[in-house]
Amino acid sequence: MTFISVENLKTGYETEKGTVQAVDDVSFSLENGESIGIAGESACGKSTLGLSIMRIVPDGSISSGDIILDGKSILKMSKSEFAKNVRWKDISMVFQGAMNSLDPVFTVEEQFVEVLKQHRYDGDYKQKISEIVNSVGLTQDVFKKYPHELSGGMKQRIVIAMALLLKPKFVIADEPTTALDVLVQAQIINLLKKMKKEGMSIMLITHDLAIISEIAEKIGIMYAGKMIEFGSASEIYKNPKHPYTQALLKSIPKLRGDKVTNYIKGTPPSLIQPPQGCRFYDRCPQAMEKCKKDVPKFKTDSGYVSCWLYE
Amino acid sequence: MLDEILLVQNLTKHFTKKGIFSSSGTVVKAVDDVSFSLKKGEVLVLAGESGSGKSTTARLILRAIEPDSGRIFFDGTEIGNDNKSLEKIRMQCQMIHQDPYASINPRMKISDIIMEPLEIHKIGTKEERKRAVLDALHEVKLEPAEDIFNKFPHMLSGGQRQRIVLARALVLKPKLIIADEPVSMLDVSIRAEVLELMRELQQKHGISYIYITHDLSTARYLGQNIAIMYLGKIVESGPIDDVLLHPRHPYTQALLDAISEPEPDNLLKEKKIRINEPLDIDVYRGCRFRARCPYAIEKCKEEPPLEQTGRDRLAACFVKLD
Questions:
Q1: A189–B271: do the CB atoms touch at under 8 Å?
Q2: Average pLDDT score over residue span A148-177
Q3: Which of A265, B39, B66, B105 shows its CA 20 to 30 Å from the CA of A236?
Q4: What CA–CA distance (Å, rounded) separates A230 from A6?
Q5: What is the ipTM of this complex?
Q6: A39 band by pLDDT with thresholds 50, 70 and 90
Q7: Among candidates B193, B221, B271 on the partner chain, residue whose Cβ is nearest the Cβ of A214
Q8: Number of structural domains, chain A?
Q9: How large is the angle between the packed helices B158-170 and B126-139, nearest 10 degrees?
Q10: Per the domain annotation, does A236 fall within a domain?
Q11: Nearest CA in chain B to A184
């Protein structure tokens, strides 16, 4: 059964120079129990996609499309209904750099209590908090500590624990491992794996395709606001179709194998009035005349690809 | 000794951490008896987690901070506190920092940013400096250089900014560049581009690098030799491919295990973490890794010496993996 589906979603930011269409006609869907990885370079719209699903796009707005969770549109819901029943309860998010947003003058426990109060939780606060703190691999010792007494990895786990507090079904994690040491990163990956086992679906947003391979059954590759390829992880890793996906995979430095360095030359186009046709045109090694026309989504075995090579 | 650009002997720096109210402090041995050498034109990778002392080592080499003890020889000259040797190291050894958004002044034009080192060291006339800046921009492949010259940092992307930082280091024609996590803030897709550029400059001008990182997979692209640091000590060193393929120290092994590679099979298995939750023991007695080491034995309560384990290989461990 389809768990969540995003259909032709468009989100933009109004600026003096015009609308920045950060998410432009993005579609994907997940079955029950599946997790997705969203990959792409900086400013490709991957964080905006996450924020759109949470319906909190600062200074921006969703202009069209729909998001359906468990058969119900969460975009057509009123703001208050969404805030009351869906946000943090069904869908929650670990924001990028959130570990630096813990309040330095409150203890960890006080910060958890605040969240529970906000959501009018009626139960034993202490028990609830220790339960959730244990589930992310921390002990009660952290309760009375202030954020500055914790390491980066511990802070990241606290933020993840906060996102899990109301037992959501869908957790969006935006760059949860960036800026952490590799060993801590591995621990966070195992934590995400554990959350999946407990029945949560994760949307992992990162520029690092290596980390996505640990978590996601499905992968969506974004480029300049468009999702240019979507499919199962095994298909994307073993048989990437879009030239951008291929280049992205080749650019990852590897620990084993040959040391050939590949990178994608050039920069993505501006998202204010982007050029007609395929947005990867300028950087694509296989660009042809046809690519100047807008590209539809062509079906693949497990998803779709937006590239004229697969017409 | 002539083919060595840098020789570091028994370098030590301890910091005393004092509470606001207590008079007694705790000592942090940030760099403790660290020795290594770097041959001309080579790249040495200093790897380890945050707090392992890699950046402190870099700052000691540049004399941004004073070492407690130990000696540093740069290009045959011992670096002391005299102006002559300080000038030498600060001119011929340049630093690249991690965050290209923080390490360049947003209010300065690109031309002024790159020109500043020349002004500080009073090199050349105004015309010559301008020429040197343009050359440096060509060198780091920021084209058209004449356009970039008059831009401000906010007009550039992260990768371009890091190349500005590289150009600023290059303008003094250094013999050694210390690069502290130069690509960890950049997108994976452009990391290779900056590394490639660094390698080209190494080959073209014979520049040596100390490449500081926690990411062993990018380290492999650039380095010939590697030294792994843990809590202020070098625990293992040797030729990079050798060390990464056959680690002898449990800490090196744990670091290697932690790295993810883009393999769809990863989905099905738990990540191996060959490191324990730290025990509450004095880390400065015996082996420092003992508190987290899955292989610790009774003998580890003594401090293991850094000893030869093979050709050019050193490891400080009583257990020594195979």
A1: yes
A2: 90
A3: A265
A4: 12
A5: 0.85
A6: very high
A7: B271
A8: 1
A9: 130
A10: yes
A11: B258
